[in-house]
Amino acid sequence: MRKITKTSLKMNCDVVVVGAGPAGSMAARMAAEAGLDVVLLEKRQEIGEPVRCAEGVSIRSEHAEIIRLRPEWISTKVKGAKLYAPGGSSLIIGEQQGCTGYVLERKLFDRGLAIEAARAGARVLVKTAATGLKRDGSSTTVSALHEGEPVQIEASLVIGADGVESKVAGWAGIDRGLLPEDTMSCAQFLVLDRSIDQNYQDYCHFFFGNEMAPGGYVWIFPKGGHLANVGIAVQGSQSSSGKPLHLLKSFLAGTMPGASILQMVTGGIPASRPMKTAVSDGVMLAGDAAHQSDPLSGGGIVNAVLAGAMAGEVAAGAVSRGDASREALAEYDRRWKASIGREIEMAYRAKEFFIRLSDDDFNRLAGSFQEKNISCLENKDLLKALFKLNPRMLWSLKSALF
């Protein structure tokens, strides 16, 4: 019997973006606005689902032009964050001047960014999973399955925005090795409980304690209408199969025993220092694929959007010059490392300090800054303030701050 094989559909474009999360959609939009022919691939059939983050963001005024939040993308505006030590004492970190906190509707946010990319001219292909990558001379070809049918997409370059387990990085030979201690295992519930609007409104709440969340923390992010994201991050080296979910259920039972769980998600995030490089010949990485999330807070949305914008802009220059070599794309490395990369490095050093603290250390530290006015949301400013309040305990952080 003669074997029947499927013939791959072939496409050509300037840039292929793999992954329609915040980094990928922003990269696609910026490249398309520069006049490039862009194809944006998303393996799922619906952009924005499932929601795999706490949805909290802090937007600085200088980034507001790039991260243009629409009202329908916002669940609620928050005044700041409230941090709880294991012993129960807490610190309120108020809103910093020129910086506003929000809890998003991540599904609408991601979809909105993809719509903006499409309006700029990018071709969006959902239910399209990249399956391979091959570099040949000055072009790069992405193999994919589009609705189950094979497709070959030839482009000048590829932007990998395909998350923490990036396949594009592996295909391009970019070293992304993550140690267990540089990952966070996470679980999150969307819950409904009458106590949320009364007890947890206006702030994002973070709870610390080595028994509660080893090497990490628990969060409650209010979304209005008695809804909240309640989640946990556990350091990878201190986690095991099912442990984050078990610990999160225990926390919820003690905090909101009558809560209804409406949605459950699990996953991992990178909590490492900046990658040595996020580029190779014909390839750039952005977002979690490039370890660009904040290793202290775990937040990655803002960094992903900013990095995606840089990647799109660098792609436009590379295509116009006809040079997508590793050397030409090094401009992207220089740009993101000089901005978000510096903050990631500082946050990583701070994380390394904090995960070594015992619960007693946390309680003593909390006692140092109780009733003090620390009115900022930025890691660096917060940690400098803490250093001044308890210099003996935080002396080992000095090299990370100054």
Classify the secondary structure makeup into a structural class. alpha/beta
Distance between the termini: 72 Å
Sum up the overall morphology in one term.
Answer: globular
Biggest sheet character: 7 strands, mixed
Poorly predicted segments: 1-5
Helix content: 25-40%
Features:
402 residues, alpha/beta, seven-stranded mixed β-sheet, 11 helices, 32% helix, disordered N terminus
Description:
By secondary structure, the protein is of the alpha/beta class. Helix content is 32%, strand content 29%. The protein is built from 11 helices and 20 strands. The strands form 4 sheets. A 7-stranded mixed β-sheet has the order 7-6-15-16-17-14-18, covered by helices on one side. It has a 6-stranded mixed β-sheet with strand order 9-3-2-13-20-19. A 4-stranded mixed β-sheet has the order 1-12-11-10. It starts with 8 loop residues before the first strand and ends with a helix. The model is unreliable at 1-5 (pLDDT under 50).
